[in-house]
Amino acid sequence: MAGNTSVPGATVVSRALALLFAFDDAHRRLTLSELARRADLPVPTAHRLVGELVAGGALVRRPTGEYVVARRLWQTGLLAPVETGLREIAAPFMNDLHAATRATVHLAVREGTEVLYLERLSGRASVPVVSTVGSRLPLHATGVGKVLLAHAPEDVVEAALARLARVTPYTITQPGRMREQLERIRHDGYATTVEEMTLGACSVAVPISAGDRVIGALGIVVPSLKRDRARLVAALQVAAQGIGRSVG
């Protein structure tokens, strides 16, 4: 839910934002009633504001009656500094990684207790993954997420460890075991997952640092890490160092 926007005193802007924030990776198409419910608004109010958002180019109404985010709003989102700066700098390094491995390559940052995917490169030979550009996934179940969690403030770590949801049978849900992994990640300089987010998919990821600050994570998803882990870690670290120097 986007918040208690139905209370007296809620501004028109806050109600419109609640409608826009009702969309997420799991809710890309919403009916009017679903929008009203997720934004905590009366249906008549939602109907009026959604009409204005459609007229203003922020939302699009499909022939089915469902609403989706308009391309214009998506283009505006790409202007966010983390999008334009880090994505543009990382692009050539990610292209080189993808060309060399033919695997899915991820660029991500932390947003609260979730990992936000800024970019993804994949091909026909890549392992199927659930991530998409702009999607958010649990920190504890992804390679890039574990890297970001390992370098997050302690309050973020505690909040993440309090909600270790099981995604697959192999997802780590024990706080003590996850803390041990985070310590090892900080020591080794990389993180791995083995079918913890998607069955049949393993990942390895490294931090991207600018100075002494971790600003993102770079990862690769492959069917197995048994043979090529060292090679993939080395390639990721070289790319991450290049990105970090360019940012810094």
Q: What keyword list fits this structure?
A:
single chain, 248 residues, alpha+beta, 6-stranded antiparallel sheet, two-stranded antiparallel sheet, 9 helices, 8 strands, 19% strand, disordered N terminus, IclR family transcriptional regulator, HTH_MetabolicPath_Reg, Tscrpt_reg_IclR_N
Describe this structure in words.
- Keywords: DNA-binding, Transcription, Transcription regulation.
- Residues 10-71 form the HTH iclR-type domain.
- It is a single chain.
- By secondary structure, the chain is α+β, with helices and mostly antiparallel strands.
- It is built from nine helices and eight strands.
- The protein has a six-stranded antiparallel sheet with strand order 5-4-3-8-7-6, sandwiched between helices. A two-stranded antiparallel sheet has the order 1-2.
- A hairpin with a 5-residue loop joins strand 1 (59-61) and strand 2 (67-69).
- Helix 1 (12-20) crosses helix 2 and helix 5 runs antiparallel to helix 9.
- The longest helix has 21 residues, at 81-101.
- The protein is globular, with a radius of gyration of 20 Å.
Write the layout of secondary structure elements.
Elements: H1 12-20, H2 32-39, H3 43-55, E1 59-61, E2 67-69, H4 71-77, H5 81-101, E3 104-111, E4 114-121, E5 136-138, H6 143-150, H7 154-161, H8 175-188, E6 191-194, E7 202-210, E8 213-222, H9 229-247
Helix pairs in contact: 1-2, 1-3, 2-3, 5-9, 6-8
Domain HTH iclR-type: 10-71
Protein name: IclR family transcriptional regulator
Keywords: DNA-binding, Transcription, Transcription regulation
User: Which structural class matches the secondary elements?
Assistant: alpha+beta
**Distance between the amino and carboxyl termini:** 38 Å
Question: How large a portion of the residues is in β-strands, by DSSP E?
Answer: 15-25%
Radius of gyration: 20 Å
Protein name: IclR family transcriptional regulator
Organism: Nocardioides aromaticivorans
Pfam families: HTH_IclR, IclR_C
InterPro entries: GAF-like_dom_sf (IPR029016), HTH_MetabolicPath_Reg (IPR050707), Tscrpt_reg_IclR_C (IPR014757), Tscrpt_reg_IclR_N (IPR005471), WH-like_DNA-bd_sf (IPR036388), WH_DNA-bd_sf (IPR036390)
